[in-house]
Amino acid sequence: MREATSREIKEIARRHLVAHGAAGVSLRAIAREMGMTAPGLYRYFASLHDLLDSLRADLFTELTDAVAAAQAALPEDDTDGRVLAALRAVRAWALGNRAEFTLLFGPAVTDTGPEEDSPAAVAGQRFAAAFVSLFDRLLAEGRFAPPPAEPEASAELRAQLDAFAACTGFTGDHASDAATRFMLRSWVRFYGLVCMEVFRHLGFVADDLGALFEAELRDLVTGLGVVYRAP
Amino acid sequence: MREATSREIKEIARRHLVAHGAAGVSLRAIAREMGMTAPGLYRYFASLHDLLDSLRADLFTELTDAVAAAQAALPEDDTDGRVLAALRAVRAWALGNRAEFTLLFGPAVTDTGPEEDSPAAVAGQRFAAAFVSLFDRLLAEGRFAPPPAEPEASAELRAQLDAFAACTGFTGDHASDAATRFMLRSWVRFYGLVCMEVFRHLGFVADDLGALFEAELRDLVTGLGVVYRAP
DNA sequence: TAAGCTTAGTTAACGCTGGTAACCACCGGT
DNA sequence: ACCGGTGGTTACCAGCGTTAACTAAGCTTA
């Protein structure tokens, strides 16, 4: 009952998101489409910001599920295939859901930084955990040796890496400063690759940058000890 | 006279941009601050979108100037230093002007894609040209050999690379498909690095990710035949 | 069965937004 | 003395998030 209405609201909100961007999601328009008035929506969400945050949480789990589904088709022990499938699943979801990806990974709309305990934040951490576990698996299999930290690595950097590891749950037996650092580097690189394509900053090139993506992916996973395989 | 008013409008708009984000720039608030009424601003800009586009153009040239200024302090023949200084200048400007960087390099606010002939677009191309010329210089000096294209490189990819080269003005004697591809890959990687930091998706780590940036920068420029040098 | 509380929704209102139309006052040129 | 353009104004439209006050059900409990 109540849950169904809540879902319908988010469903309509998502349609407006893809149609007009994040700024085009309005309570009044949603209410109008539902045959309601805007204040009625406040029975379900404390504010527009809360609605969007809840929507973000849903989208994070949808993306996480897509990543899991892509891996489910492969045998359990096919680590190479799972890594490639997971990364490709992220790109595919991002391209198929540009507005949603922007909401999740675009610039933080609030200047207060991301809230620690919001539903979207915890869903985002579960998404991150999926890739952390894959990275941990590569480490466990001894696929590669993370480049040792330079001697001039400051204590400040070390503290930052510890915070990152703690936040993403990268605290297994194979965790180390060097490993954390390499995981972060790999993720940053992949993030930029997808962002560039989704944000259309390469729009003058073409709509489908699949070939470039695959070339970068090959380079990226090779550094992680994964043998590349064409899609 | 008229030019001065136009500049004042954009100046105030920029203040509102950094204070409340791109969505917080409103004609009425600007007019109020100027002791005017909102419709008066339409004598200077056809719409809010036009104002933001003009502001984008200004910011692109400001960033381009910052990159040039960083290089100006170095001797003319110090290619390594110039490359490092230029890339560091982009990061420094981005961190010092987060909201402005987001406006330039964040997700495209319009769903119609970037307009071809808007003032911001041409200013953006001049910004790109600064790095294209640096890349061309590295090629001219034979600093590195761009990795040869895989045999399975499709004709589609080739066409995309040609479009990219034409759009960025990368048409010198040293231009080739392999070179264009490597330039694009390098830029995408750098873009992701800066975006991740500016968009605060690593906010849980720390505010200053300088050490991580330098580590990535070292890896990146080394691949371009530039000998790394600490800042 | 009647009283009372909770829930889901309403209307009315405040103050804000971008944008348009009509109008006005000034200032330079003929 | 008149005329046109420039730089503004007021009045208005439609839309926005949010709050306050209220109403109509439905369920609980004495």
Automatic annotation (TrEMBL), chains A, B:
Residues 3-63 form the HTH tetR-type domain. It holds the Pfam family TetR_C_33. InterPro entries: Homeodomain-like_sf, HTH-type_TetR-like_transc_reg, HTH_TetR, MT1864/Rv1816-like_C, Tet_transcr_reg_TetR-rel_C_sf. It comes from the Bacteria. This is TetR/AcrR family transcriptional regulator. The keyword Transcription applies. Keywords: DNA-binding, Transcription, Transcription regulation. The keyword Protein biosynthesis does not apply. One of its GO terms (molecular function) is DNA-binding transcription factor activity. Residues 26-45 bind DNA.
